[in-house]
Amino acid sequence: MRSMEVRVVKEADRGRFNAHIAQLGGDLLQSFEWGEIKGQTGWEPIRLMVCDGDQVRAGVSILQRKLPLLSSPIFYAPRGPVMDFTDAPALECLLDGIAKLARARGAVMLKIDPPVPKLHQDVVKILGSRGFRHVDKGLAFDGIQPRFVMQLDLSPSEEELLAGMKGKTRYNIRYAERKGVRIKENCTRKDLAVFYQILLETAARDNFTVRSYSYFELLWDHLVPKGMGRLFMASYQGEYLAGAFLFRLGPIAWYVYGASSNRHRNLMPNYLLQWAMIKWAKRQGCRIYDFRGVSGDLDPDHPLYGLYRFKTGFGASLVEYLGEYDLPYRPALYGLWRRSEPWHKSILKWKDNLSSFLKRGD
Protein backbone atom coordinates (compact mmCIF):
# COMPACT_ATOMS: atom_id res chain seq x y z
CA MET A 1 0.00 0.00 0.00
CA ARG A 2 1.36 3.40 -0.95
CA SER A 3 1.81 6.04 1.72
CA MET A 4 2.41 9.75 1.45
CA GLU A 5 5.79 11.16 2.30
CA VAL A 6 7.50 14.53 2.40
CA ARG A 7 10.55 14.81 0.18
CA VAL A 8 13.20 17.48 0.04
CA VAL A 9 13.24 18.77 -3.54
CA LYS A 10 16.62 18.36 -5.23
CA GLU A 11 17.97 19.71 -8.51
CA ALA A 12 16.81 16.54 -10.26
CA ASP A 13 13.24 17.30 -9.11
CA ARG A 14 13.23 20.85 -10.54
CA GLY A 15 11.01 20.05 -13.53
CA ARG A 16 8.56 17.95 -11.53
CA PHE A 17 8.33 20.55 -8.77
CA ASN A 18 7.73 23.43 -11.20
CA ALA A 19 5.18 21.38 -13.13
CA HIS A 20 3.16 20.91 -9.94
CA ILE A 21 3.29 24.64 -9.19
CA ALA A 22 2.21 25.53 -12.74
CA GLN A 23 -0.51 22.88 -12.94
CA LEU A 24 -2.26 24.25 -9.85
CA GLY A 25 -1.93 27.85 -11.02
CA GLY A 26 0.70 28.61 -8.39
CA ASP A 27 2.75 31.78 -8.25
CA LEU A 28 6.20 32.10 -9.80
CA LEU A 29 7.41 33.03 -6.30
CA GLN A 30 7.00 29.34 -5.46
CA SER A 31 9.11 28.16 -8.39
CA PHE A 32 12.49 26.46 -8.02
CA GLU A 33 14.11 29.41 -9.81
CA TRP A 34 12.72 32.01 -7.41
CA GLY A 35 14.36 30.13 -4.55
CA GLU A 36 17.65 30.34 -6.45
CA ILE A 37 17.25 34.10 -6.84
CA LYS A 38 16.45 34.65 -3.17
CA GLY A 39 19.29 32.33 -2.23
CA GLN A 40 21.64 35.04 -3.47
CA THR A 41 19.95 37.81 -1.49
CA GLY A 42 20.31 36.60 2.09
CA TRP A 43 17.71 33.80 2.18
CA GLU A 44 18.16 30.03 2.15
CA PRO A 45 15.60 28.16 0.00
CA ILE A 46 14.06 24.95 1.30
CA ARG A 47 11.77 23.12 -1.09
CA LEU A 48 9.47 20.27 -0.06
CA MET A 49 6.84 18.22 -1.83
CA VAL A 50 4.32 15.69 -0.61
CA CYS A 51 4.39 12.61 -2.82
CA ASP A 52 1.83 9.85 -3.01
CA GLY A 53 3.63 7.37 -5.21
CA ASP A 54 4.20 9.19 -8.49
CA GLN A 55 1.62 11.87 -7.68
CA VAL A 56 2.63 15.21 -6.15
CA ARG A 57 -0.10 16.24 -3.71
CA ALA A 58 1.51 19.41 -2.33
CA GLY A 59 4.56 21.57 -2.87
CA VAL A 60 6.16 24.46 -1.03
CA SER A 61 9.24 26.61 -1.44
CA ILE A 62 10.24 28.03 1.93
CA LEU A 63 12.72 30.85 2.42
CA GLN A 64 14.71 30.77 5.65
CA ARG A 65 16.43 33.78 7.17
CA LYS A 66 17.92 34.39 10.60
CA LEU A 67 16.42 37.23 12.61
CA PRO A 68 19.24 39.56 13.68
CA LEU A 69 17.81 40.46 17.12
CA LEU A 70 16.66 36.95 18.04
CA SER A 71 19.47 34.90 16.44
CA SER A 72 16.85 32.41 15.28
CA PRO A 73 15.45 31.80 11.79
CA ILE A 74 11.99 32.33 10.38
CA PHE A 75 10.37 30.32 7.59
CA TYR A 76 8.46 32.19 4.88
CA ALA A 77 6.64 30.56 1.96
CA PRO A 78 5.88 33.41 -0.49
CA ARG A 79 2.51 32.72 -2.10
CA GLY A 80 2.66 29.16 -0.79
CA PRO A 81 2.07 26.34 -0.18
CA VAL A 82 0.71 25.24 -3.55
CA MET A 83 -1.93 22.58 -2.99
CA ASP A 84 -5.59 21.84 -2.46
CA PHE A 85 -5.99 22.94 1.16
CA THR A 86 -9.04 20.71 1.55
CA ASP A 87 -6.77 17.70 0.97
CA ALA A 88 -6.44 17.04 4.71
CA PRO A 89 -3.98 14.09 4.53
CA ALA A 90 -1.60 16.01 2.24
CA LEU A 91 -1.82 19.16 4.37
CA GLU A 92 -1.13 17.22 7.55
CA CYS A 93 1.81 15.44 5.95
CA LEU A 94 3.27 18.72 4.67
CA LEU A 95 2.86 20.61 7.95
CA ASP A 96 4.33 17.72 9.93
CA GLY A 97 7.34 17.72 7.63
CA ILE A 98 7.81 21.49 7.98
CA ALA A 99 7.42 21.29 11.78
CA LYS A 100 10.09 18.61 11.97
CA LEU A 101 12.43 20.78 9.95
CA ALA A 102 11.57 23.80 12.12
CA ARG A 103 12.49 21.90 15.29
CA ALA A 104 15.79 20.83 13.80
CA ARG A 105 16.66 24.40 12.79
CA GLY A 106 15.10 26.23 15.73
CA ALA A 107 12.71 28.21 13.53
CA VAL A 108 10.47 30.71 15.27
CA MET A 109 7.53 30.42 12.88
CA LEU A 110 6.22 29.69 9.40
CA LYS A 111 4.61 32.57 7.49
CA ILE A 112 2.41 31.86 4.47
CA ASP A 113 0.31 34.04 2.14
CA PRO A 114 -1.21 31.66 -0.42
CA PRO A 115 -3.01 33.14 -3.45
CA VAL A 116 -6.36 31.85 -2.23
CA PRO A 117 -9.30 34.26 -2.65
CA LYS A 118 -10.86 35.40 0.62
CA LEU A 119 -14.22 34.01 -0.42
CA HIS A 120 -12.83 30.52 0.34
CA GLN A 121 -13.73 30.65 4.03
CA ASP A 122 -13.33 26.89 4.25
CA VAL A 123 -9.58 27.41 3.88
CA VAL A 124 -9.66 30.05 6.64
CA LYS A 125 -11.24 27.49 8.98
CA ILE A 126 -8.74 24.83 7.97
CA LEU A 127 -5.77 27.10 8.66
CA GLY A 128 -7.24 28.13 12.01
CA SER A 129 -7.71 24.50 13.01
CA ARG A 130 -4.03 23.88 12.27
CA GLY A 131 -2.85 26.67 14.56
CA PHE A 132 -2.30 29.42 11.98
CA ARG A 133 -2.92 33.00 13.10
CA HIS A 134 -4.13 35.65 10.69
CA VAL A 135 -1.89 38.74 10.59
CA ASP A 136 -3.83 41.83 9.55
CA LYS A 137 -1.59 44.16 7.52
CA GLY A 138 -4.28 46.67 6.57
CA LEU A 139 -5.64 47.62 3.17
CA ALA A 140 -2.55 49.09 1.52
CA PHE A 141 0.91 47.59 0.87
CA ASP A 142 2.15 46.87 4.40
CA GLY A 143 2.14 43.12 3.80
CA ILE A 144 5.03 41.26 2.19
CA GLN A 145 2.92 40.44 -0.87
CA PRO A 146 -0.13 42.45 -1.98
CA ARG A 147 -3.40 41.14 -0.56
CA PHE A 148 -5.46 42.93 -3.21
CA VAL A 149 -4.60 42.26 -6.85
CA MET A 150 -6.14 43.02 -10.23
CA GLN A 151 -6.58 40.13 -12.65
CA LEU A 152 -7.69 40.01 -16.26
CA ASP A 153 -9.33 36.92 -17.75
CA LEU A 154 -7.57 36.23 -21.05
CA SER A 155 -10.08 33.73 -22.43
CA PRO A 156 -11.93 36.30 -24.63
CA SER A 157 -10.56 37.21 -28.07
CA GLU A 158 -8.33 40.27 -28.51
CA GLU A 159 -11.28 42.17 -29.94
CA GLU A 160 -13.41 41.22 -26.93
CA LEU A 161 -10.64 42.19 -24.53
CA LEU A 162 -10.43 45.63 -26.16
CA ALA A 163 -14.21 45.98 -26.01
CA GLY A 164 -14.13 45.16 -22.30
CA MET A 165 -11.78 48.05 -21.54
CA LYS A 166 -12.88 51.50 -20.53
CA GLY A 167 -13.20 53.92 -23.41
CA LYS A 168 -10.39 56.16 -22.17
CA THR A 169 -8.00 53.18 -21.98
CA ARG A 170 -8.83 52.10 -25.54
CA TYR A 171 -8.34 55.68 -26.70
CA ASN A 172 -4.93 55.95 -25.01
CA ILE A 173 -3.76 52.67 -26.57
CA ARG A 174 -4.73 53.81 -30.04
CA TYR A 175 -3.39 57.30 -29.44
CA ALA A 176 0.05 55.91 -28.55
CA GLU A 177 0.02 53.75 -31.68
CA ARG A 178 -1.09 56.64 -33.86
CA LYS A 179 1.62 58.93 -32.51
CA GLY A 180 4.35 56.39 -33.33
CA VAL A 181 5.09 54.69 -30.02
CA ARG A 182 6.64 51.27 -30.69
CA ILE A 183 6.95 48.22 -28.43
CA LYS A 184 10.01 45.99 -28.32
CA GLU A 185 9.11 42.50 -27.11
CA ASN A 186 12.43 40.75 -27.69
CA CYS A 187 14.54 42.90 -25.35
CA THR A 188 18.14 41.93 -24.65
CA ARG A 189 20.24 42.12 -21.51
CA LYS A 190 21.64 45.42 -22.83
CA ASP A 191 18.11 46.84 -22.72
CA LEU A 192 17.91 45.89 -19.04
CA ALA A 193 20.41 48.62 -18.15
CA VAL A 194 18.29 51.23 -19.93
CA PHE A 195 15.16 49.96 -18.22
CA TYR A 196 16.87 50.26 -14.84
CA GLN A 197 17.79 53.90 -15.46
CA ILE A 198 14.15 54.65 -16.33
CA LEU A 199 13.09 52.79 -13.17
CA LEU A 200 15.38 55.02 -11.09
CA GLU A 201 13.80 58.05 -12.77
CA THR A 202 10.35 56.73 -11.92
CA ALA A 203 11.34 56.07 -8.30
CA ALA A 204 12.65 59.61 -7.88
CA ARG A 205 9.45 61.05 -9.36
CA ASP A 206 7.02 58.87 -7.39
CA ASN A 207 9.07 58.64 -4.19
CA PHE A 208 9.69 54.91 -3.77
CA THR A 209 12.83 52.81 -3.40
CA VAL A 210 14.12 50.26 -5.89
CA ARG A 211 16.42 47.29 -5.59
CA SER A 212 19.96 47.34 -6.91
CA TYR A 213 20.75 46.69 -10.56
CA SER A 214 22.43 43.42 -9.54
CA TYR A 215 19.03 42.16 -8.34
CA PHE A 216 17.50 42.76 -11.77
CA GLU A 217 20.46 40.97 -13.32
CA LEU A 218 19.58 37.99 -11.12
CA LEU A 219 15.99 38.12 -12.34
CA TRP A 220 17.16 38.20 -15.93
CA ASP A 221 19.71 35.41 -15.64
CA HIS A 222 17.42 32.99 -13.79
CA LEU A 223 14.11 33.70 -15.51
CA VAL A 224 14.47 35.14 -19.00
CA PRO A 225 16.46 32.28 -20.60
CA LYS A 226 13.81 29.82 -19.35
CA GLY A 227 10.85 31.80 -20.64
CA MET A 228 9.74 32.69 -17.10
CA GLY A 229 10.55 36.39 -17.44
CA ARG A 230 10.44 38.94 -20.22
CA LEU A 231 11.25 42.62 -20.57
CA PHE A 232 9.11 44.90 -22.75
CA MET A 233 10.16 48.42 -23.75
CA ALA A 234 8.22 51.27 -25.35
CA SER A 235 10.07 53.75 -27.57
CA TYR A 236 9.39 56.89 -29.55
CA GLN A 237 11.66 58.02 -32.39
CA GLY A 238 14.38 55.69 -31.15
CA GLU A 239 14.21 56.83 -27.51
CA TYR A 240 13.01 54.45 -24.80
CA LEU A 241 10.15 55.96 -22.82
CA ALA A 242 8.88 53.10 -20.65
CA GLY A 243 9.48 49.50 -19.75
CA ALA A 244 7.96 46.65 -17.78
CA PHE A 245 9.04 43.24 -16.54
CA LEU A 246 6.67 40.32 -16.94
CA PHE A 247 6.82 37.02 -15.04
CA ARG A 248 5.19 33.90 -16.44
CA LEU A 249 4.56 30.40 -15.08
CA GLY A 250 2.04 28.02 -16.59
CA PRO A 251 -1.36 29.70 -17.10
CA ILE A 252 -0.53 33.01 -15.40
CA ALA A 253 1.50 36.09 -16.36
CA TRP A 254 2.35 38.79 -13.81
CA TYR A 255 3.14 42.43 -14.50
CA VAL A 256 5.79 43.05 -11.85
CA TYR A 257 8.00 46.08 -12.44
CA GLY A 258 7.01 49.11 -14.48
CA ALA A 259 8.92 52.29 -15.27
CA SER A 260 8.28 55.40 -17.32
CA SER A 261 10.46 58.34 -18.30
CA ASN A 262 9.55 61.92 -17.56
CA ARG A 263 9.80 62.64 -21.29
CA HIS A 264 6.84 62.33 -23.67
CA ARG A 265 4.47 61.05 -21.00
CA ASN A 266 1.68 62.66 -23.03
CA LEU A 267 2.16 59.90 -25.63
CA MET A 268 0.69 57.32 -23.22
CA PRO A 269 3.40 54.68 -23.74
CA ASN A 270 2.37 52.73 -20.61
CA TYR A 271 -1.04 51.95 -22.09
CA LEU A 272 0.36 50.52 -25.29
CA LEU A 273 2.99 48.66 -23.26
CA GLN A 274 0.33 46.92 -21.15
CA TRP A 275 -1.71 46.01 -24.21
CA ALA A 276 1.37 44.46 -25.86
CA MET A 277 2.07 42.40 -22.74
CA ILE A 278 -1.54 41.27 -22.49
CA LYS A 279 -1.53 40.12 -26.12
CA TRP A 280 1.82 38.37 -25.66
CA ALA A 281 0.56 36.52 -22.56
CA LYS A 282 -2.56 35.42 -24.44
CA ARG A 283 -0.46 34.13 -27.34
CA GLN A 284 1.56 32.06 -24.86
CA GLY A 285 -1.62 30.34 -23.72
CA CYS A 286 -1.97 32.15 -20.39
CA ARG A 287 -5.45 32.25 -18.88
CA ILE A 288 -4.82 35.11 -16.43
CA TYR A 289 -2.94 38.40 -16.68
CA ASP A 290 -2.16 39.60 -13.17
CA PHE A 291 -1.57 43.35 -12.76
CA ARG A 292 -0.42 42.71 -9.17
CA GLY A 293 -1.28 44.92 -6.25
CA VAL A 294 -3.63 47.79 -5.53
CA SER A 295 -4.86 49.27 -2.28
CA GLY A 296 -7.97 47.71 -0.80
CA ASP A 297 -9.21 51.21 0.03
CA LEU A 298 -11.21 52.16 -3.06
CA ASP A 299 -12.03 55.68 -1.98
CA PRO A 300 -11.35 57.87 -5.07
CA ASP A 301 -9.61 60.37 -2.76
CA HIS A 302 -7.13 57.75 -1.54
CA PRO A 303 -3.56 58.52 -2.77
CA LEU A 304 -3.23 55.01 -4.24
CA TYR A 305 -6.57 55.03 -6.06
CA GLY A 306 -4.82 55.92 -9.32
CA LEU A 307 -3.31 52.41 -9.46
CA TYR A 308 -6.76 50.87 -9.24
CA ARG A 309 -8.15 53.26 -11.86
CA PHE A 310 -5.32 52.48 -14.30
CA LYS A 311 -5.60 48.71 -13.92
CA THR A 312 -9.37 48.50 -13.93
CA GLY A 313 -9.31 50.50 -17.15
CA PHE A 314 -8.04 47.37 -18.90
CA GLY A 315 -11.03 45.37 -17.69
CA ALA A 316 -9.26 43.74 -14.76
CA SER A 317 -11.20 42.62 -11.69
CA LEU A 318 -10.26 43.05 -8.04
CA VAL A 319 -9.33 39.86 -6.17
CA GLU A 320 -8.75 39.83 -2.41
CA TYR A 321 -6.57 37.04 -1.05
CA LEU A 322 -6.62 35.58 2.46
CA GLY A 323 -3.55 37.57 3.49
CA GLU A 324 -0.74 36.52 5.79
CA TYR A 325 -0.94 33.64 8.26
CA ASP A 326 1.67 32.74 10.87
CA LEU A 327 2.20 29.33 12.46
CA PRO A 328 4.31 29.86 15.61
CA TYR A 329 6.73 27.10 16.59
CA ARG A 330 8.33 28.91 19.52
CA PRO A 331 5.54 31.03 21.09
CA ALA A 332 7.76 33.14 23.37
CA LEU A 333 10.14 34.09 20.57
CA TYR A 334 7.23 34.60 18.23
CA GLY A 335 5.78 37.15 20.66
CA LEU A 336 9.11 38.96 20.70
CA TRP A 337 9.20 38.89 16.89
CA ARG A 338 5.76 40.44 16.63
CA ARG A 339 6.74 43.26 18.99
CA SER A 340 10.10 43.87 17.34
CA GLU A 341 9.07 43.26 13.71
CA PRO A 342 9.64 46.90 12.59
CA TRP A 343 13.19 46.79 14.02
CA HIS A 344 13.96 43.50 12.31
CA LYS A 345 12.66 44.78 8.98
CA SER A 346 14.80 47.91 9.26
CA ILE A 347 17.93 45.93 10.06
CA LEU A 348 17.34 43.39 7.28
CA LYS A 349 16.68 46.19 4.78
CA TRP A 350 19.90 47.92 5.87
CA LYS A 351 21.85 44.68 5.43
CA ASP A 352 20.34 44.11 1.98
CA ASN A 353 21.17 47.67 0.89
CA LEU A 354 24.73 47.30 2.19
CA SER A 355 25.14 44.01 0.33
CA SER A 356 23.87 45.59 -2.90
CA PHE A 357 26.20 48.57 -2.41
CA LEU A 358 29.22 46.30 -1.97
CA LYS A 359 28.26 44.22 -5.02
CA ARG A 360 28.08 47.35 -7.19
CA GLY A 361 31.46 48.46 -5.89
CA ASP A 362 30.42 52.11 -5.70
Describe the structure.
The chain has eleven helices and 15 strands. With 362 residues, it is α+β, with helices and mostly antiparallel strands. It folds into two domains: 5-140 and 322-360, Gcn5-related N-acetyltransferase (GNAT) (Aminopeptidase, 3-Layer(aba) Sandwich), CATH 3.40.630.30; 148-320, Gcn5-related N-acetyltransferase (GNAT) (Aminopeptidase, 3-Layer(aba) Sandwich), CATH 3.40.630.30. Strands 1, 2, 3, 4, 5, 6, 7 and 15 form an eight-stranded mixed beta sheet that branches. Strands 9-10-11-12-13-8-14 form a seven-stranded mixed beta sheet, sandwiched between helices. Strand 11 and strand 12 form a beta hairpin. Helix 2 (32-38) packs antiparallel against helix 8, helix 6 (167-178) packs across helix 9 and helix 7 (189-206) crosses helix 8 (213-223). It is globular and about 60 Å long. The N and C termini lie far apart (61 Å). The relative contact order is 0.16.
Brief sketch in words of this structure:
With 362 residues, the chain is an alpha+beta fold. The chain has helices at 14-23, 32-38, 88-105, 121-129, 158-163, 167-178, 189-206, 213-223, 269-283, 305-312, 331-360, and strands spanning 5-8, 44-52, 55-67, 72-77, 82-83, 109-112, 133-135, 148-153, 182-184, 229-236, 239-249, 252-260, 288-293, 317-320, 324-328.
